[in-house]
Amino acid sequence: MEAPAAGDELGSTPEPTIVQPAGTTAPPPYPARDSQQGEQLHLGESAQFSEELEDRGLLESSTRLKPHEAQSYRKKALWVSWASIIVTLALAVAAFTVSVMRYSASSFGFAFDATLDVLSSVIVLWRYSNAAAVHSAQREYLACAILGVIFLLSSLCIVIKAIHDLATKLLPEV
């Protein structure tokens, strides 16, 4: 074991080093600021730094689009959502039917997943249904929050179904 170098203390953490492949440049450690702001970011300005990140938000890349491009992508998202709802809803109904008729846990799982896909597509449909709100951070946040709650509830339902099947000693059939 090596002895610590002069000035080092035992248990101190070494400074991290970023290694870049040859021929590449390292990205700046913090997002670039506008030239109008001219100030450097200091460690004591953490609140200002987080506000700047919030202003950029989830929609930074979408605000770079031209208005006609954003509307084109919005229409494509609506078409894909509608197609997904129709196809996946048909699959969910068929899988639930098979699940009930054959007492199939795997069919139930597939049907439950298909139902989640339908709900996700409905949320995307709602998110992009308003042409004026394509860049709406509020709608984006609400859509993400609703999706998160739906997936948490679905995991709870799956756990309850599994506990029920274990408690009633329902054995899977081959």
UniProtKB/TrEMBL annotation:
This is Transmembrane protein 163. Keywords: Cytoplasmic vesicle, Endosome, Membrane, Synapse, Transmembrane, Transmembrane helix, Zinc. It is found in: Cytoplasmic vesicle, Secretory vesicle, Synaptic vesicle membrane; Early endosome membrane. Belongs to the TMEM163 family. Residues 1-42 are annotated as: Disordered. It comes from the Eukaryota. It is a multi-pass membrane protein. The chain crosses the membrane at residues 77-101, 107-129, 141-163.
